[in-house]
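Sample A.
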Amino acid sequence: MNRILVIDKPRGLTSHDVVARVRRITRVQKVGHAGTLDPAATGVLVVLVGKATRLAQFFVDLEKRYRGRVVLGVTTDTQDSEGKVESTGDVSGVTRPQIEEAFAAFEGRTEQIPPMVSALKRDGTPLYVLARRGEVVERAPRPITITDLKILSVEMPEVEFEMTCSRGTYVRTVAADIGERLGCGAHLGQLARTAVGPFDVDDATSLDELAGALGDTEGTGYSMYDALSFMPEVRVTEREEEALSTGGMIGIDPGRLGDDVGNFVRLSADGSELVAVGRRVEAPPGNEGDAAVPDKIRIQPVRVFVEPL
């Protein structure tokens, strides 16, 4: 079984717990996920089974969409509702315009200091392990992009919102930073990931549904080829497939990609089975062969799924 499963993660399970359950249900040992969800969060977790685990990098980089609730006036040591209360603040003077201004300040490209309670590692040790020991270490700010941060409702002291953001964005840190900007403190009260790239929670499968398939999980989720629908596609010839199977570069006419853009392309012989994922590369001077012809696009395979012919 080589599939991409879009799982609707329930509250209370870690992403590792979900992977372990999928492993038991599918009876496939090689299972991974593309983007951690906190135990308290629910929603879309992209799970990769079998050879699909080799595609993880392409799903991790996809934009994520969330729906959640910020609770103003209370900070916690984990920045969410699972932590211990650290402080309380007065929200009586906080107005809707002030909240809107605070939210707007976090849209676009910004920097974020990751929380101590996170899976990031320091000298091989996850930060959350250090946090449990009472240790606090310096963390360098990291660039993030929030393309959309929309307020859905305000019922003080709670603010419901929707956010679309880049990989590596800690939504609970955004909530805490908004509270700090407002001067009253805040934490993330609830969070659901509603989409990862093209994968929407409405199309996700619960673990119970997956288990209820009674072993017929091959038809659940997406094939490796279909799951990469966000990439431009190229149909390859037998000769090109043979070159790709041994790690060789190919050169294609620009018309075979149409108006599609992107650094990575999915390559298939029949439009259903994934031959390889390739990356566009610049042609070095002095090379010969199809891949070096100036009016062709050079494709270097980065993940190959066919054996040499």
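Sample B, a different protein:
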Amino acid sequence: MKIKDITNVLEALAPLNLQESYDNAGLIVGDLNTEITGILFSLDAIESVVDEAISKGCNMVVSHHPIVFRGLKQFNGKNYVERTVMSAIRNGVALYAIHTNLDNVLYRGVNGKIADKLGVLNPQILAPKSGMDHIGAGVIGTLAAPMEEMAFLTHVKNTMHAGCVRHTALRNSKVQKIAICGGSGSFLLPEAIKAGADVFVTADFKYHEFFDAEGRIIIADIGHYESEQFTIELLFEIISEKYPNFALHLTHQNTNPVNYI
């Protein structure tokens, strides 16, 4: 099996043309015609993940986040991005990222996986791209039955293994309609409010952005890594269904740069 066999499966689900303009999804390091010895799935492709891939005999890392967002003009190992790329090239490890293109699909996308974990039923795209109901940012769906606000926030915290949940004021009513956006989702707050969501589960809200809820919705910020951590399970499932007997591994690295006390 070659790298292109894996990229074809991933890009059939989430074509590269669905990524946002700022993104850098796709094959970042490697040759599409290289024979694969094994694949390691991770949220981030950093040095320790490349080291783990090498130790497991894997010559391909499939990550959600691209290690390279901006152009690299020098390769001196002065930062973790350069060191990771240099290590991958030196050791023949391909780096592939499936980022906002996977965010933007409903079927087997990042946000659908979160909805499944939280028990949010019948998810639909929150902010569809023009003319495409199943393509766009975020999802919105409903719980099987209404829940008390704090009970739901506790459920989110426990299910998503969040160190904490930063949230706006409770509204003293039960919640059932839930909006979701893995990663940085503050740009979708107006859409979540417009859609009548009771809670918006996402990450990376800035201090002043919490004021924008204005009592119309509960913002539940669970952290970037926490919101997207199950993406590696999703990627593993997608590839293992196509190639069930191949050497596939979930990383043992917790790549979250944020710690809690």
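Observation for Sample B: The chain has a mean pLDDT of 96.
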